[in-house]
Amino acid sequence: MKRPSILIKSLLPALVLGLAACASETAAPPDVPEVAERPTYVIGPQDALNIFVWRNPDLSTTVPVRPDGRISIPLVKELEVAGKTPAEVAADIEEELSQFVQAPSVTVIVTSFAGPYDQQVRIVGEATEPKALAYRDRMTLLDAMISVGGLTEFAAGNRAVLVREDDAGNTQNYTVRLDDLLEEGDISANARLLPGDIIIVPQAWF
User: Fold this and answer.
1) pTM of the model as a whole
2) Start-to-end C-alpha separation, the chain
3) How far apart, in whole angstroms, are the C-alpha atoms of residue 105 and residue 95?
4) 3-state SS of the chain?
5) CA distances (Å), 126 to each of 28, 53, 120, 155, in order?
6) pLDDT tens digit at each of 206 positions of the chain
7) Which residue pairs from 165-169 have beta carbons closer than 8 angstroms and sit at least 24 positions apart in sequence?
8) What's the CA gap between 201 and 35, in Å, rounded?
């Protein structure tokens, strides 16, 4: 049995007002570190890329990134793109095409976003619909909870844990207050997320 989805809908006006009031401040649980800078998006499997080659419409195309992280385009049979930025992929394509085209100019636009697996945000446990989400710029706990439909009635939201890996590869666990955020509209319980974050929602003790 799940918590009625109407709960989130009924709280949205209060949450929107709270977010507007805090727009000039960064509201986050004290045990979750603030995000120092906005992460750069890198391409992952299942992304779709629009590749535009200036003055060469026959070479311009839209292709999906295969599960192995590679693409195939006209005149370029295999190109590794996963883990690179669109600008880096454009430079790689220009280098490959320079064998056939004089001074090629390439633009790469991501049209469908999934991102590398290690940069997605995952919600597991007592979420209504546990899933992996493509990270979005300035994504927060509230965004993630709306995307998974909130919590089940068995969730211990205030004992949820955010698992984050630092630049040195060390894993840190932070307690987050999802019940306060979703049921009380407490925007101070909201927190900025990073690519690779995992939110674990435990079951309540009965």
Assistant:
1) 0.74
2) 15
3) 10
4) CECCCHHHHHHHHHHHHHHHHCCCCCCCCCCCCCCCCCCCCCCCCCCEEEEEECCCCCCCEEEECCCCCEEEECCEEEEECCCCCHHHHHHHHHHHHCCCCCCCCEEEEEEECCCCHHHCEEEEECECCCEEECCCCCCEHHHHHHHCCCEECCECHHHEEEEEECCCCCEEEEEECHHHHHHCCCHHHCCECCCCCEEEECECCC
5) 22, 47, 19, 5
6) 445 444 445 544 444 444 444 433 445 677 788 777 788 899 999 999 999 999 999 999 999 999 999 999 999 999 999 999 999 999 999 999 999 999 999 999 999 998 998 889 999 999 999 999 999 989 999 999 999 999 999 999 999 999 999 888 899 999 999 999 999 999 999 999 999 999 999 999 86
7) 165/196
8) 22
Structure tokens at 24: 């000039």
Looking at residue 3, its amino acid is R
Q: How many residues does the chain have?
A: 206
- Copy the structure tokens of residue 196: 């690779």
- Structure tokens belonging to residue 58: 């026959």
Token digits of residue 11: 């709280």
